Each structure stands twice: as structure tokens, then as C-alpha cells.
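W.,

You were right to be curious about this one. When I first looked at the sequence I had no strong expectations either way, so I just let the prediction run and decided to look at it fresh. Below is the sequence, 66 residues in total, followed by the output.
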Amino acid sequence: MAGAASTLIAWCESGFSLVRAAADLQIHRNTLVYRLAKIEDLTGRDTRDARFAFKLYLACVADLLG
């Protein structure tokens, strides 16, 4: 889950910018697209839905805080 969490956190904190999130994660843009697609497959929801992405973001940050 750590990879998915860091991907989602970067995605949200970049303002949903593929280029900025990929740069923050130091990965190729296509790798980010692949990771987001995997998150969508696991959740059955669209990561471009800001309300849903924000809920996942909060869950990931809360998990990091312990």
C-alpha cells in the first residue's frame, strides 16, 4: 500500500497534475498513469473525481500519522 499511498498523495498535492506528480515521485508520467489506473481498478472509482481522491488522500495521510 505504501506505493499506492505515495502515488495518491503526490497526485492530490500536485493539484491533479500528471506532470508535477510524476516529477515529485521521480517516475515517468506513464508510470503514474498506470499506478492511478491500478488504484481505480482496486477501488472501482475514478481517481479524477476530486471528492473521492480527497477522501483517499485523507485516509493515506491519516495512516501515515499513525
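Here's what jumped out at me. The mean pLDDT is 93. And, maybe more interesting for your project: The helical segments are 2-13, 18-25, 29-43, 50-65.

Coffee later to discuss?

I.
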